[in-house]
Amino acid sequence: MTRRDDTRTAVPPGPADPRRPRADRARQVADVLRRQVLHGDLRSGALPAEAELVREFGASRNTVREALALLRAEGLIERCPGVGTHAVAEKYPHGLERLLGLAETLREHGEVANEVRMTGLLTPSREVASRLRLRAGEQVVYIERIRRLNGLPLSLDLTYIPRDLGEPLLAEDLVRNDIFVLLERIAGRPLGRAEVTLEAVNADPHSAATLDAPRGAALLMLERLTHLSDGRPVDLEFIRFRGDRITMSGSMNRA
Amino acid sequence: MTRRDDTRTAVPPGPADPRRPRADRARQVADVLRRQVLHGDLRSGALPAEAELVREFGASRNTVREALALLRAEGLIERCPGVGTHAVAEKYPHGLERLLGLAETLREHGEVANEVRMTGLLTPSREVASRLRLRAGEQVVYIERIRRLNGLPLSLDLTYIPRDLGEPLLAEDLVRNDIFVLLERIAGRPLGRAEVTLEAVNADPHSAATLDAPRGAALLMLERLTHLSDGRPVDLEFIRFRGDRITMSGSMNRA
User: Fold this and answer.
1) In a domain, B2, yes or no
2) B67 and B151 within one domain
3) What is the ipTM, given to two decimal places?
4) How many CB pairs below 8 A link A and B?
5) Which chain A residues have a beta carbon less than 8 Å from that of B126?
């Protein structure tokens, strides 16, 4: 008897198996709902009633409640007593396919305005100099900005630009314009390729405070080296996006 | 006098301005060092001594110490008394350019093994059915896996596959193989395009425990719908990567 139970335990349980923890079933429901909240017809609309979700997912009422609690904890939905549950996500799509500045990519979602926290010349470390292909001792323009969409902080951007392009940049309106657009105008040629690295990191206390986010909030961290169309590297950026405000979407090919 | 000060305050401070908070200067140093820890010649090696970093970054000793503290808090470096500071990151690169399974993409870094937490048939919700282009009531195979590299948990994957491909898949070795590779063999044709959405989220307590990560740890969340080369959608996945174990890299073009 005990033997048979042992053997059974080695077989992974099926979706409806009562041995399966409710938290696993709740995650499964939450992931599908999350997609609908972010992309689907639920966006800024009402979620179906609990009873309907129970039917839709073939899940217990407690599982559905736990799934909704997960999405509430992320700030994606809200429950109003007597009214029901609705999506509240202020989460905006940033394309992964084409290299676009934030104002360009979010044009249809509202107005991007940048708070320029500091600008200035500095002698970069060897690592930064080598990525921008500068000679030792050559200075760069450094720019630090908080970027807001409709007044909400989206990201904190640290930017290094070679001096010949960076100094004319500082004379431009950095509050209303993407650096990408200004760089192309100043360089007189389009940007080409960028190498990007994405990570998820917990915000340190100071970065969290700067972005009006809770301490430890998940950030999407983007490091990006952008080249002009002639291959010259001209823009090295370290960008912390608030994880609760940005999604990145694109497509990938197998071949 | 007061007027002049007010006017001055409106000008962003330069990099060496003493009014600039040390936390801002520390972040600036940490971001460049972080890149070197992850990609550069420091990987699994020693960091330069504090005095050398002070020279290299033109920063104060306190700023350099605060920068190192930020990287330590993320688990990227460690200080050993009497020995110095060295990189300890177990952070692996996942390509953003070509669609690859985890074992394929991390081949040079070690062995990927999957713990199959559950498998089974289920009737999907309308959202899942519609994305996989299934008729109402058609069942799918559901697979839940923890994926480990050299024994370390990297991700928790929730996968939905149409029944005609999913059932033969369950007869295969899911512990040692990527689903991508198995699907191509079963379908008799290569995979084609995938639509992906990336987010940074804080781990809920149960997902954190499942991935051996601290509660609230930053996760890179990937939702991916993969098609066969003939355009048929065959694999819908919801993947939680540990933020401290994975980076995603690729390139983007402006044109």
Assistant:
1) no
2) no
3) 0.89
4) 250
5) 56
- Rounded Cα distance between B232 and B181, Å, is 16
Among A189, A207, A251, the residue to mutate for chain B (most B Cβ within 10 A): A251
Kindly report, residue by residue over B39-52, the tens digit of the pLDDT.
766 655 788 999 99
Q: Which residues of B touch A52 (CB under 8 A)?
A: none
User: Sorting pLDDT into bands at 50, 70 and 90, what band is A86?
Assistant: confident
**Cα separations in angstroms, A143 against A19, A223, A237, B106:** 55, 15, 9, 36
Same domain, B47 and B113: no
Q: In chain B, which stretches have pLDDT less than 50?
A: 1-10
Q: Tell which of B167, B178, B201, B247 to mutate to test the A interface (max A CBs under 10 Å).
A: B201
Helices marked H in chain A — which ranges?
2-10, 22-39, 50-57, 61-73, 102-105, 126-131, 163-170, 179-187, 205-210
CA–centroid distance for B7 within its chain: 44
What CATH number is attached to the domain comprising A58? 1.10.10.10
Confidence (pLDDT) at A5 = 39
The strands making up B233-242's β-sheet, listed across from edge to edge, are: A92-95, A246-253, B191-202, B218-228, B233-242, B152-162, B140-149, B112-122
- Per-residue confidence (pLDDT) for residue A12, from 0 to 100: 58
CB B159 within 8 A of CB B145: yes
- Decide if A199 and B128 are in contact by the 8 Å CB cutoff: no
Buried b or exposed e, range B218-242, using 16+ CB within 10 angstroms: bbbbbbbbbbbeeeebbbbbbbbbb
Whole-number Å distance between alpha carbons of B229 and A255: 9
* Closest CB to B204 among A12, A73, A118: A73
Among the candidates B41, B72, B87, a domain finishes at B87
- A253 and B193 within 8 Å at the Cβ level: the answer is yes
Residues B164 and B199 in one domain: yes
Q: Answer left, alpha or beta for residue A150, where phi above 0 means left and psi between -120 and 50 means alpha.
A: left
Burial zone of B71 (CB within 10 Å; 0-12 exposed, 13-18 middle, 19+ buried): buried
Whether B117 is in a domain gets the answer yes
Residue B29 shares a structural domain with residue B139: no
Residue A204 pLDDT > 50? yes
In order, the DSSP letters of A75-143 are TSEEEETTTEEEE----EEEESSB---HHHHTGGG--EEEEEEEEEEE---HHHHHHTTPPTT--EEEE
CA distance B199 to A247: 5
CA distance A28 to B144: 10
The pair of three-digit structure tokens given for residue A55, joined into one six-digit string: 């039917």
Please report residues of B whose CB lies closer than 8 A to that of A241: 200
Range of the domain at A56: 22-87
**Residue to test with chain A: of B197, B207, B215, most A Cβ within 10 A:** B197
